[in-house]
Amino acid sequence: MGFFHKLSTAFRGIASEAGETIIDTQAIRILEQEVRDAKKHWDEAKENLAKVIAKQIGIEREIKRLKKMIVEYEEYAIKSLDKGNEALATEIAEKVADLENELAVQFSVLESYHMNINTLKQNIRNTELHIKSMEREMSVVKTTESVQKANAAAANKFSGSNSALRSATDSLERIKQKQQQKADQLKAAIELQQQESGSDLHEKLKQAGLVSEAISAQTVLARLKAKQLDKTNIRL
């Protein structure tokens, strides 16, 4: 019994973790849906408010009608009294009383509409502010998630032995090695060519002073100046 109880508990724990994982991975979608639901309820609330305001307007119109009728019947009652027809005046007075009682009821209804409308307007305004706040937060969350994904992708791409950056570095190193190898081969080929043509031996003899260097213009000019100086000395 204890084993199966623990096994059941373990399965519940796995299911709970899986559920939390799903919620975490779909958090933004869930938040977006919640915002859409809130907007839908907000729109419905505005529609209901419009209906309530329409009814309030109807009550106000009914109150105006009752007031007008009361004034009108009061005038009839006064005229009846002026003609000495008290029975008719009494009947009219009963009508006026009924109208005034109805007017009092309509005033009560109108006051109720005023209170409800003010409450609805405040609730709708609060809901609007809350939705805008949620949209701002959602924008920040989505931007943060995009940045985190970009950072994660960059980290995965440029880290580790198989990363693109390391691969590029290795390729660059191989290119440099090949270039150095080609430079060494070229240097060796030049040295070999010099040895085959004897230019290398000539260079060694020249450095040893066994082979004279080619006559330069400076050498010729120095020699001519020396001859000119000798002629001048002979004349003297």
Chain-wise SSE layout:
Blueprint: H1 2-25, H2 27-82, H3 86-157, H4 164-197, H5 199-207, H6 217-235
Helix pairs in contact: 2-3
Keywords: Coiled coil
Coiled coil: 169-196
Protein name: Phage shock protein A
Provide the domain count: 2
Counting DSSP E segments of at least 2 residues, the number of strands comes to: 0
- Main sheet characteristics: none
CATH topology of the largest domain: Helix Hairpins
Q: Roughly how much helix do the residues carry, as a percent range?
A: over 70%
Fraction in beta strands: under 5%
Average pLDDT value? Answer: 77
Structural class, from helix and strand content? mainly alpha
Number of helices in the DSSP assignment: 6
Low-confidence stretches: none
Output the radius of gyration. 54 Å
Level-2 CATH architecture of the largest domain: Orthogonal Bundle
Could you characterize what this model shows?
Keywords: Coiled coil. Belongs to the PspA/Vipp/IM30 family. The chain is an all-alpha fold and 236 residues long. The protein has two domains: 2-157, Helix Hairpins, CATH 1.10.287; 169-235, no CATH class. It has six helices and no strands. 3% of the residues are buried. The model has no long low-confidence stretch (mean pLDDT 77).
